[in-house]
Structure formats: C-alpha cells, structure tokens
Amino acid sequence: MALITVEQPTAAQLAALGVADWPTWTKEVSRFPWHYSSREIAYILEGAVTVTPQGGAPVSFGAGDLVTFEPGLDCVWEVTQPLRKHYQFD
Predict the structure, then answer these.
(1) From the CB of residue 3, how many other CB atoms can be counted at a distance below 10 Å?
(2) Residue-wise over 50-82: b if at least 16 C-beta within 10 A, else e?
(3) Residue 2 — very low, low, confident or very high, per pLDDT cuts 50/70/90?
(4) Is 69 helix (H, G, I), strand (E, B) or coil?
(5) Widest CA span of the chain, in angstroms?
(6) DSSP state of 23
(7) Whose CB among 20, 48, 60, 69 lies 3.0–4.6 Å from 40's, allowing a Cys bridge?
(8) Which domains, ranges and CATH numbers included, belong to the chain?
(9) Is pLDDT at 80 greater than 70 in this prediction?
(10) 21: phi then psi, degrees, rounded to nearest 5
C-alpha cells in the first residue's frame, strides 16, 4: 500500500466528503520533517508541495489534488509555493 496517494477529485466527490466544512491550514515556503500518527486527507486549495517519505521517492502535488497520508508515515515536507489546504484526520 502506498503511504501517499494523490487524486484529482470531482466536485461531487468533494461534496460527498464534506471537504468545504474541513478546517483550513496554511504554510509559507518552507521545509520540515513530519510524522503521521493517524490518517490525514487533504484537499489542496493553493500552492505546491513535495513530500519525501523516509526511504522513498518524492511525491509532488498542488492545487486541485486530494492527498491521503497513511498512519506511520515519516517524511519531509518541502512547500515550494505558499500552501492553503482543507484537511481531516481520522
């Protein structure tokens, strides 16, 4: 199973998930380590990011992408354009 999955959702899929009601998070251009103790689903509103899992290949995504991060993921985030996203933790 992939630790990071990136999809291009339809408006109907976003509505079914209730994405518009999720909290919003913003981050300036930066680089930082992160550990996921629970599953996160994020919908990218603006910006661009490359996330590199420990021992894995980088995964890049940006505006319009729905991204799922699985629990146990250790990674490094590199925000290359200022980021704004909706997010939900399970």
Answers:
(1) 18
(2) bbbbeeeeebebbeebbbebeeebebeebbeee
(3) confident
(4) strand
(5) 35
(6) -
(7) 69
(8) 4-89 (2.60.120.10)
(9) yes
(10) -90, -5
Cα(22)–Cα(32) distance, rounded to whole angstroms?
Answer: 23
CA dihedral angle for residue 3, residue 62, residue 34, residue 24, rounded to 10 degrees: -110
Q: How far apart are CA 67 and CA 47, in angstroms?
A: 13
- Residues 6 or more apart in contact with residue 62 via CB below 8 angstroms: 44, 47, 48, 49, 81
Asked if residue 1 has pLDDT above 70, the reply is no
